[in-house]
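For consistency, the fold was encoded as tokens, which produced the following:
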Amino acid sequence: GNLVAQGGTRVDLTYGLHHVKAIRKYCYPSEQEFEISSITDSVILSAPRRMQGSFVVMTDKDGASVYLDGKLVGQTPLDIKEMPAGDYRVSIAKEGYADQEHMVSVLPDEETKITCELDKLETLLIKTNAYDPEVAIDGKIVSGTKVQVPKGRYPIELNALGYRSKSRVVDIKEGINRYKCHLIYNYGPQF
């Protein structure tokens, strides 16, 4: 006979009575007893029951959407009393504010709490002589020349086909920020 273990693994067993204890992270151990009496007998163990914890998300601005592993679960303030223990990717989003992402472990019989300050997005308008420039802010390519970023100091790089790239550090303040950048035409290799 055989026993189907985690992930569909097949384990060959001898005839007779067997006692199996399944142990999995964040789960209550489960025990099962069964008998193999012929070569065609198969047993599939039931999955261990997940332990529960509680999970709380607070933000300084109420109404932020909270996603667990990409699935919307509610808005802040959020309090989930019985949540399966485990590791989760938590994303927090609110229009007009920078998205945040955290990795958290909800532990059995404990409260896991995240408290976040949301960073308001400010507007940066980039004006340049080049058509359709590629703009990178803090090393990340962004779309277009009207960009939303939190207040702060950022390295900006502009690239455009046929032009030399240009880099500069820009201070983003509250409100609308403007950055005018004249790119120099690249005449090709210099000999």
